[in-house]
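Protein folds are increasingly written down as discrete tokens. With that in mind, we are printing a sequence and the tokens encoding its fold.
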Amino acid sequence: MYSDDDISYALETTEVLLEPDRRIDTFGTTVFEFHIISELMDSINEVRIRRGSVEAARPLIVSPQSLDNLSFEGFGEQAEEFADWLRRQEGTAAFLKYGFNFKQSDVTESVVHDPIEDVRARVLSDVNGGNNPLHAVIQGVDDTWEISLLRFTVEMIQKSHGINVFDFKRRGLL
């Protein structure tokens, strides 16, 4: 289990070197391919390269009517009042729910014995040569590489949200 310091360090030091040209599709599943490069702890010029994919399900609209199943366990009376207010908005307040599937079995990894700068350049060159608009290259911390991947997914949600809202509105769904 990661400590709060481990998570904070991973979030602060993760760098998306190449982000996908495309965003999360509004009306379909999006599969992002990724390379995560990280220096091995306590080693010089040893870099792990992980490669895999993460699947973003199409965003779902969460409307006030669907808030009946929302649980505010541990919150006081004000939380229920807020939920009641949301339900009364009748279509004026809606949220998008995003979901990602990450399959550990799809991840491959290898270790190379080169400086990280050389590995970065080589991976970026290889990925750019492939012309895949859904590919990302991320540099993270070896032990907490999954946190680096989660940070990437959150960034993709943030960058996709406005486009997804526009698409839903254009079709009269929001």
